[in-house]
Structures are given as structure tokens and as C-alpha cells.
Specification:
The complex is a heterodimer of chains A (585) and B (385). With 585 residues, chain A is of the alpha/beta class. Chain A contains 20 helices and 23 strands. In chain B, strand 6, helix 7 and strand 7 form a beta-alpha-beta unit. Chain B is globular, with a radius of gyration of 21 Å. Classes of the chains: A alpha/beta (585), B alpha/beta (385).
Chain lengths: 585, 385
């Protein structure tokens, strides 16, 4: 317990100092709480229908590992360049950083990674499962069909995609204007899917007869034909020449036919199609008035799209329901009636009714209807609940004995019509079919659950394919679980955009890429909720030196012979990648 | 080379000359100038040392305890409340036998909030195992800091170099600032007797049970005794190089004195003038300045005072419920001798109040006209309230 130090004149100094090892004192026996490493689920990734591993992606960006970050997206989503542009990014609404200062600009970072990959001609480095014998036919080369083909290809299945139109992409090609999604971007993404061995047959319209003979060549069919038929308004004058379907108008523009628009046009509807029609009309020289029967906050269109439409001069008239369209000498008159909100309907949307009998007349040159679309053919609709029909979160699986399985997905089954939901649907369909072929229908639900991100509706293909991500706990990290002492408030990167004048004069892409410098700075704001970024705080703070570095993927382990269970490591972990639980649990 | 410097700068110059490698301090008036000078020296390269910015005096000393354990020379400075906050670690530094040197600028303790001179802050720490050396002027400050390192490193005990707030810390005086080569000759590099060495791991400060603790305390006591015994030799070495020495105590005209005034700090300088005037009037008066308070030079003090008829101690401090602290120590030094002269305890100058020539003369006159003190502590210049 003591040491003597002798000085040069032979005098002794008695010191409280010991060279005896304290290893014999197994302080771990004092422990009643036990820390351990446990990576958890970040709320952004649970909110992303595609279940992208966002916390990990941003961590890789901070290290300048752009290729690895891009690969990480590709494990869960074949469309980073598309989603980095047109996704409505529900991830950002659930970002814990939003409670601290502002949410991480996940959308801009995804776009940055996709563009960086394209500029540097990155080739994906993703594990593929060995080839399988089962063949799958996919009807529709829209985002849902292509995503299904992509994930099935990762799982080793040969796929044939049949597209009725002359080119691939579905709504991404025909429905989304170029100012949101340039064609080259879309084609780059599709080329990567084809490179996996997916065969796409364009100009092949598939009829319901196909299902009868499909068993001859295919073990399963994915129906992803989307919603391509405009819904009817059911008002007088609907068949007049001056009343055009919004979705056809957008398609015409994408085919390169740029119709001149003069004067004021009315666009009836509140969804993304309506907003895109209104914005496209502005670009073609017109003045657009959006006529919506509910309020702005009830619009199914993505909020930031509405915001940009208004910036570009689109006028929004709320609580106006169309009653009749009449042709006049100089154009058309749209007769509308004022509506009021009277509570909620069964879907939770505002229920409305007319204020009275009085109507208003809007004088316009043209009327577009865009109140939503529906399947073009009846057989696209998934069957109702019955035996051998499995209604999953993002798709409907029909598995009858001795017949090819049929999965209905994409917009046919998604409540929210978005690209990322189509990706979710394709992933779910691919996993469900793989489980069906390997283990049978009864195993499907349990297997889907085991790779659910945070236990929710989003699925992780990486987890399904036994990647490291499958070790994450389903616990979704809450803001209070982040140790914010380790973070300073910093402002969110501003998405650079074309000026309003530049925007309305052409169909040039509005959003611009952020620089690598800004991307790294933005990614550094990320809490990486629930993920270990090797900060080493646990190692530094452990008073018992019980945190030991090793060669495992975690990089360290706890020596429970000496860990007293004080919990310092867990408290000082900035990102909640550790857990403290009662001993013996 | 003679330079006109502030007392605080005298400290800083001595730290520079001692080639201190780590400085850790927290600012507090009236000590702040010392660390300001040192931080500038560190910033402009005058001194090749690491300046640790810490969040409190407690941390300042804690950091140095770690630092000096690795075998480097280190320095800190504080005052009043700051020293009080260091209290726990003062014990630790001494118990761990770390020869840290601290400049302690005497400051009155609050409340009432007061930044001026009063010795109660340092004297309240007298039992922590630190040496304490009280200085009279800036030259003594610079010389004492160098000697503190020399002595402290020989016996492995920390040293407080104590100076009066403002009267010394903020006063400019001509000072001989030694050349570096001379300072180096007097003060060789720190040669630690033990150090924290990762090649030879050991733990400092483990549990020490009753069967070993007492011996360690005794070892500190022995260290203090050694320091007292070695102090003259350190002064000899110093005098050889610089031609100056101070003594553990400084006895002025004590040989034939009937009354000896006992002082410390800057009051001593004023008292020297008073003594000169009184002796010119034929008074048999002497002065004993106490420089070294810990270890306490008991024999020398006893020997000097024993021949006097009366002793008058001037204390710029007070131990509540007892008396002036120097007076206590002087009484204790005399109590085991025959023919002990009576000890008059005077309390003066608390909280920075001036102790003038007139006050010191009044103390002398009062001592002369009373056979024995009318009470244990006589508060001089106390106003009616």
C-alpha cells in the first residue's frame, strides 16, 4: 500500500502509492445495473417508407465516404436520385434534431449523394443473393414495378418487366414535370436496375388473360399498373373540349409537345397532379388558378410543392366546388359553389358541405381536371379479403395452390401515392415472394416483422439479407434520449434553387445540388440517433477501465468482471447507442 | 538587472526564471495580474510553458497535482476566497508530496466583500502541510519564489509564497531581476524522486489503512523538519550567487532590546522606520520579522525573544474565539522556557486598513507603559460604532 522513494542523500519519502494490481478486486460483483451496446432505430429511418438507414448514411457523409453512403441508400432504395428530388421526405418531419434546432436536410443530402455518384460514375457495391430458378413477371415499369424487379434481382430472381407505353418510368416519366425530375436522372436510375439483369419489354400491353397463362413461364406476377385514368368530376360540361385531363396534359409536355397556354386556366383538384398542372401552365405562359373544394391544409399535394406553386404565381382558391363548365364566346366559365367545413369525414379529412345555393362564375380559357386518378382497368384492383389473400402494409399477395402468386402493389395498394411508397411496396412484395418460395406463406408475416425498421411498416432489405442492420433494436430513439450537451445549435443548409424568374420561364430543374463541403457540414449536424460513431466517450468516461477496445464491428466491449454498472458510459453516449438495464434481464 | 516592476510581475518573472513548465490558475483580484503576466509570457513565447485554463481554483490545483505527479515543475497563484476553495486539495498536494509553488496574495475573506490585504486566508491554511513564506517587498518576492522551488523540491513539500494585496502585489519597486543563467545555476531542473510513469505503473493515493497512515503523516512532519534545517543552506547557495539572504526570521536590534516588535509582510518595512526613529530617541526597541511561518523556526524565535522584557506581536489576522495567529505561535514558542517575557497581542490593519508609523508607535508606547497586557488581544484603531 505504500512506497518509499529514496533521495540522493539516502532520506526516505513515504508515499501513498502502490504497484499492486487491483485486478483481484472484481468490482463487477457490485453491479445491479448493466450497460451494453445496443444500436437502435433512428426515427427518420422508421418514418421513411423505404426504411433507408439515414443515420448511418449521414455518418458516412461526415467521413467523406460518399460512395459507401450511396451504397447504403441503394440497399434500401433503387432511386436515390429520384427520391433526392421528388420525395416528400417524411423522414425530416420525424428528425429528432428538429426539436433541437432544425431537422437535418436529409432530402438535399440524398440528392447530393446521388449526383455525386452519377458525376463520378460510381458502380454499386451491393451483395447479391445466388441466382434462383423462380421467374417473376412484373406488369408496369413505373416506380413500383421497377422497385420490385430491383429487389427481386438482389434476391437472385430473374424478372421480366412489361410496360404498356413506349418507355420506362411510369409516372416518373409521364407524370412528373422536368423541373422536378430531369429525364437523364431517371434514365440513369433505370439503367442501373437493368444492369442487374432485369429485362424490360416496352410497348407490351398486358391484359387480364395474361394471368391465366402466366404459370407456363412464371412463378409469380407483380401487378403495378398504377393509376392512370382520371376520375370523373360528374358535373355538367365535363365532356367539353376545353376541359382536359390534367394527367394527359403533363404527359403531352413530357412527350415534347409544348402546348401554348394563354390567359387564365383553372385547375380543379388539390393533389400533386393538380399542382404540377398549374405550375406547368404557368411555364407555358398562362395564369393558373387552383380550385380546391377543401382547404390548403387538407390538400393531398406535398406542402412544399404547394408553397413553390404559390411562389411561382399560382393562385389558390379554397373551399370552392365545381358545379358546371360552360362554353362562352371567349373561352369557358367555371361555375363554383362556396363550401364550408363541417367536421371530419371517415378518413379524417375535412368534411364539407355547400354554404348555400349561391354560385360564382370564373372566366377562364381552359379547365383542367385533376381530382385524382384510378386504375385504368378493373382487374388491376386487388381482390377483397378472402382465403389466400394476404393484405400486407404496402401490397396485397394472392397465393393460391398450383397457381403463380400474384402481388398487387404500387399506387394500386398505397394510400399515399408517392415514389417512396412504391419502393416500400416493391420491397415488401420481393421479400414476401422470397419467403413464399423458400418457406411458404405461413412464414411471411413473421419474416416481414423481423426486418421491419423500428417494428413499423418500413422494411429493411439489408436486415432481411442478414446485414449488420438486423442487430438494431426496434426501439426508436426519442429526442430526450439524445445527450444534447454534445451538440451545438447550427443552422440547416439552405436548399439552393433557381430564382423565381428563371423558374417560370422554362422547365429547367429548380433545385440545385449542394456542395460537398456543405453536405459534410449538414451531415455533421445529424445526431445519428441510436448509432455508434466510435466517439469513444464510453471508453474515456469509464472509471473502471472496463471498456476495452477490440476488433469487433462495435470496436469495443465491456469487461463485466470490473464494470460496476455506474451507467456513466450510457449517460455520456451522445447518441443513445447504449442501454442500461437491470442485471439479470 | 534592476527594473521597476509591479509586485505581481516580480512573481511572474521568478516563475519565468524557474522555467516552470505548467501553469494552472483561475483569476481572482488581487492575484489576477500574476497570471495575466504569465499567460502573456506563454502566448508570446517568453516562457515555454503550458497555461491551463480551468473553471475554478479547486480545479486549478487538482490539475497541478496531476501535472506535478508526472515530474514537471508547476505553478499556481490565488487569493482569499480562491485559496479557501482550494482547501481540500492543499491537503492532497502536501500528502502526495508534490513540490508545487503557489503565490498567495493575502486578501480578506468575505463577507463583507473585501479585496484588500488580510492574512487570515493563508493562516487558515497553516495545517495543510504547505510551507509558508511571507514576503516584505518585491525583491524578496522574486528571490523567495526561486528559493521555494529549490527547497520544496528537496523535501517534496509544496510552498506558498505569501505577499500582501496591493501594498505589495500592485506596487512598483526597483527590483534586481536575475539573469537566466544565474537563476539556472541556483535552481537546477526538477529531478523528481518519483513520478507517474506508464512504463512502471503504480497507483497514487490508494486506501491507506491505520497500520500505515500514521507513518506517512510522520514522514511529512520529518519533511517539514528537514525543510527548516535545509533553509539556511538554500539561502547560502542563493547568497553565493546573488548576494542576498533573508533568514527564516530577521532580527533587528534584538540583542539589547527591552521590547521586541514581531511583524510579518509589509508592516515590517514600516516598523523598520519606526524602530530607527525610536532608537534615535534612546528607546531600547528591536524588531523580529517572521518570514518562514511553516515550518515554524521555533528555536530561533525563542532564542531571539527570550532576552527581551516584553514582546509585542502585530497581527493582520485574527482567529475568532482566540487571538492573533502569530501571537498564538509566539506565545507557544515561549511557554516552555523560564523567565518568559509577556506577549502583547495587537490586531491591526484588517481588511486593508493602513498600519501607519503612528499606529506602530502607539503599539510600542502601550507595551512600554503596561507591565502585562490588559487583555489577550488589543484591537488598535478600532472605531466607535
Amino acid at each position: 500500500m505504500t512506497a518509499k522513494a529514496e533521495n540522493k542523500t539516502g532520506e526516505f519519502l513515504l508515499l501513498p502509492c502502490t504497484s499492486m494490481s487491483t485486478e483481484s478486486n472484481l468490482t463487477g460483483s457490485w453491479r445491479f445495473m448493466k450497460p451494453r451496446y445496443e444500436e437502435k432505430t433512428a426515427p427518420c429511418s422508421a418514418a421513411c417508407p423505404a426504411g433507408e438507414d439515414i443515420g448511418r448514411i449521414e455518418m458516412l457523409v461526415t467521413q467523406g465516404l460518399f460512395k459507401e453512403a450511396w451504397d447504403t441508400i441503394l440497399r434500401e432504395n433503387p432511386f436515390p436520385a429520384v427520391c433526392g428530388r421528388v420525395c416528400y421526405h417524411p423522414c425530416e418531419n420525424n428528425c429528432n434534431r428538429g426539436e433541437f434546432d432544425e431537422a437535418i436536410a436529409i432530402h438535399s443530402l440524398e440528392r447530393f449523394l446521388a449526383d455525386t455518384a452519377s458525376k463520378n460514375e460510381f458502380k454499386p457495391s451491393i451483395d447479391l443473393r445466388p441466382a434462383r430458378d423462380e421467374r417473376i413477371a412484373i406488369i408496369g415499369a413505373g416506380p413500383g414495378g421497377l422497385a420490385t424487379a430491383y429487389f427481386l434481382a438482389l434476391l437472385g430472381y430473374p424478372c421480366d418487366v412489361f410496360e404498356s407505353t413506349s418507355a420506362t418510368g411510369g409516372v416518373l416519366r409521364w407524370g412528373i414535370p422536368l423541373y422536378r425530375l430531369p429525364l437523364a436522372v431517371l434514365e440513369g436510375e433505370i439503367a442501373r436496375i437493368e444492369a442487374l439483369g432485369v429485362t424490360i419489354h416496352t410497348g407490351r400491353h398486358i391484359t387480364s388473360d395474361f394471368l391465366k397463362t402466366a404459370h407456363e413461364r412464371y412463378n409469380a406476377v407483380f401487378v403495378g399498373c398504377g393509376h392512370s385514368k382520371s376520375r370523373k368530376l360528374g358535373i355538367d360540361g365535363e365532356d367539353l373540349d376545353g376541359l382536359e385531363e390534367g394527367i394527359r396534359f403533363l404527359e403531352k409536355i413530357r412527350r415534347g409537345d409544348l402546348p401554348a397556354v394563354e390567359g387564365t386556366v383553372a385547375v380543379i383538384g388539390g393533389g400533386n397532379t393538380a399542382v404540377d398542372v398549374a405550375r406547368s401552365a404557368v411555364r407555358l405562359g398562362g395564369k393558373s388558378v387552383l380550385v380546391y373544394r377543401r382547404r390548403r391544409e387538407d390538400m393531398p399535394a406535398f406542402e412544399h410543392e404547394v408553397e413553390m406553386a404559390l411562389e411561382e404565381g399560382v393562385e389558390l382558391r379554397q373551399l370552392l366546388a365545381p358545379v358546371e363548365v360552360k362554353q362562352t364566346e371567349n373561352g369557358y366559365t367555371l361555375v363554383v359553389r362556396s363550401m364550408k367545413v363541417v367536421g371530419e369525414d371517415e378518413d379524417g379529412r375535412a368534411a364539407i358541405e355547400p354554404v348555400g345555393e349561391t354560385t360564382e362564375e370564373l372566366t377562364v380559357q381552359k379547365v383542367f381536371k385533376a381530382i385524382g386518378e384510378e386504375p385504368a382497368e378493373n382487374w388491376y384492383n386487388p381482390p377483397l379479403k378472402r382465403q389466400n389473400v394476404m393484405r400486407l402494409n404496402h401490397s396485397v399477395l394472392v397465393h393460391e395452390p398450383r397457381r403463380p402468386a400474384v402481388v398487387f402493389g404500387g399506387d394500386l395498394t398505397s394510400r399515399i401515392k408517392s415514389v417512396v411508397h412504391a419502393v416500400a411496396s416493391g420491397k415488401e412484395a420481393a421479400i414476401a415472394l422470397d419467403v413464399l418460395f423458400r418457406e411458404g406463406a405461413d412464414a411471411i408475416r413473421a419474416r416481414l416483422k423481423s426486418c421491419a425498421v423500428g417494428g413499423g411498416a418500413a422494411l429493411s432489405m439489408e436486415a432481411y439479407m442478414d446485414g449488420l442492420r438486423k442487430n438494431r433494436s426496434h426501439h426508436t430513439v426519442r429526442y430526450e434520449e439524445i445527450n444534447t450537451d454534445y451538440f451545438q445549435t447550427t443552422s440547416r443548409v439552405t436548399q439552393p434553387r433557381l430564382l423565381i424568374g428563371e423558374r417560370i420561364g422554362s422547365f429547367k430543374e429548380i433545385d440545385l445540388k449542394i456542395s460537398a463541403n456543405l453536405a459534410i457540414k449538414e451531415a455533421e449536424r445529424c445526431f445519428n440517433c441510436g448509432l455508434c460513431n466510435q466517439c469513444d466517450n464510453c471508453y474515456l468516461f469509464c472509471p473502471d477501465l472496463a471498456v476495452c477496445r477490440d476488433e469487433s464491428s462495435q470496436g469495443r466491449h465491456i469487461n463485466y468482471d470490473y464494470c460496476k454498472g455506474c451507467g456513466l458510459c450510457v449517460v455520456e453516449c451522445p447518441r443513445n447507442a447504449m442501454i442500461l438495464e437491470e442485471e439479470g434481464q | 538587472m534592476k527594473r521597476v516592476v509591479e509586485g505581481s510581475q516580480a512573481v511572474a518573472e521568478a516563475v519565468r526564471l524557474a522555467r516552470v513548465e505548467v501553469i494552472s490558475a483561475y483569476p481572482i483580484t488581487p492575484q489576477t495580474h500574476i497570471v495575466e503576466f504569465l499567460s502573456e509570457y506563454c502566448a508570446n513565447g517568453t516562457l515555454d510553458a503550458r497555461f491551463l485554463r480551468v473553471e475554478s481554483e479547486h480545479s486549478a490545483l487538482a490539475a497541478l497535482i496531476g501535472t506535478v505527479s508526472t515530474g514537471v515543475r508547476a505553478f499556481t497563484a490565488t487569493s482569499g476566497q480562491g485559496l479557501a476553495l482550494m482547501h481540500e486539495l492543499l491537503h492532497w498536494a502536501a500528502g502526495a508530496r508534490l513540490p508545487i509553488v503557489m503565490a498567495e496574495v493575502n486578501r480578506a475573506l468575505a463577507p463583507g466583500w473585501n479585496i484588500w490585504v488580510d492574512q487570515t486566508d493563508s493562516l487558515a491554511q497553516r495545517d495543510t502541510g504547505w510551507m509558508q513564506m511571507y514576503c516584505e517587498n518585491s525583491q524578496e518576492v522574486i528571490d523567495t519564489v526561486l528559493m521555494a522551488y529549490r527547497l520544496g523540491e528537496q523535501v517534496n513539500l509544496p510552498v506558498m509564497v505569501v505577499l500582501d494585496a496591493f501594498f505589495l502585489s500592485h506596487t512598483y519597486e526597483p527590483v534586481d531581476v536575475p539573469a537566466q543563467e544565474l537563476a539556472d545555476r541556483f535552481l537546477p531542473p526538477f529531478d523528481p524522486k518519483f513520478l507517474l510513469d506508464t512504463q512502471n505503473p503504480c497507483a497514487f493515493g490508494p486506501l491507506v489503512p491505520p497500520n500505515a497512515y500514521m507513518e506517512m503523516r510522520h514522514s511529512i512532519a520529518v519533511g517539514m523538519d528537514q525543510a527548516l534545517a535545509r533553509f539556511p543552506a538554500v539561502e547560502d547557495e542563493f547568497e553565493d550567487i546573488f548576494g542576498r539572504r533573508y533568514g527564516a526570521v530577521d532580527a533587528v536590534h534584538c540583542d539589547d532590546a527591552e521590547i521586541i516588535l514581531v511583524t510579518s509582510g509589509t508592516i515590517t518595512s514600516t516598523t523598520r522606520e519606526v524602530i530607527k526613529a525610536l532608537r534615535a530617541r534612546g528607546e531600547h526597541v528591536g524588531l523580529l520579522k517572521v518570514k518562514l511561518f511553516r515550518p515554524f523556526p521555533l528555536e530561533e524565535i525563542r532564542r531571539t525573544l527570550q532576552t527581551a522584557q516584553k514582546v509585542a506581536v502585530i497581527d493582520r489576522n485574527f482567529s475568532f474565539g482566540a487571538s492573533g495567529i502569530f501571537a498564538q505561535e509566539i506565545r507557544a514558542a515561549l511557554c516552555n522556557t523560564v523567565d518568559t517575557p509577556p506577549v502583547f497581542g495587537y490586531i491591526a490593519g484588517l481588511g486593508g486598513r493602513d498600519v501607519t508609523r503612528e499606529i506602530i508607535e502607539e503599539i510600542y508606547t502601550n507595551t512600554k507603559h503596561n507591565e502585562v497586557p490588559e487583555k489577550e488581544s488589543i484591537w488598535v484603531g478600532l472605531q466607535e460604532v
